[in-house]
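Q: Got a minute? One more chain.
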Amino acid sequence: MKRAHGRHKGSWRLAAAVLGVALLVIAEAAATQMYKWKDAQGVTHYGDTPPPRVKSEVLKTDKQAPARAPILPYELARAVQAAPVVLYTTARCDACDEGRTLLRARGIPFLERTVNTGEDQKQLEQVSGGKSELPLLLVGSRRITGFQAAAWNEALTSAAYPRQKMLPPTYQFAPPAPAAGGAAATPSAETPVPPTRGQLRMPPDDAAGQAVQQPPRTKQPPIPEP
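A: Always. Here it is, folded:
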C-alpha cells in the first residue's frame, strides 16, 4: 500500500515538472526604451512611445519584460497531469533520436533524462525495473523499453494524449538533464481552466430526460392566521 502511494506521489511530481516545475517563467529579455521630451510650454514628459514631430531623447533602462507562459490546450494539459512523459536517452543512439523526434512531431510535452555516467545508469535501472536498454519511455506508470513507433503511439493514445499536435507555437521543449541530476527545468505552461457548468450545453434528449426525472414542485398552502 505504501509502495502504491509512493508511485502516485511520484507521478504527480513528474506531472508538475513537465508542466514547468511549479510553473517557472520563460523570461525573454526585451530591453525597454523610454523617451524624454519637452512640449511647447517647456514641460518635460516621459513615455515608452516617441512623441510625434518633437525631438526626443532615448533613455535606456535595465527593466526586462518577461513573456507570458504558453497555455496548453485543456485536453493536452489534462493528459500531462494524469500521465507525464519522461524519455531516457544516451549519446550516439539512433533509436533515442527517433523516439525524441516522434514525441516532438506529435506535440508531446516531455522530460528528457540522459544516461552517460554510472550514477545515471543506476537511476535508469531503478525506474526501468533493472533493464539497461535505451531509449526508455515512461508514460505515467507505463514503461516501454526500446523504440517502437507503434507501441509508443499506442501508449500515448491510451493515456489520452491528442493524436494531432496541439502545442502552442511559442512552446519550448525542456533541455535534457542527467538522469541522476533531478528534474530538468521546463518552460512555463499555464494550465487552462476547464469549462464551467454554465458553458456546457446539454443535448436536448438528456435535458428532457432530466426534466422528467425532476419531481414536480408542490405549492405550500397558506398558513391560517390565529
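A: Strands lie at 31-38, 44-47, 56-64, 85-89, 110-114, 136-139, 142-145, 177-178.
Q: Perfect, thanks.
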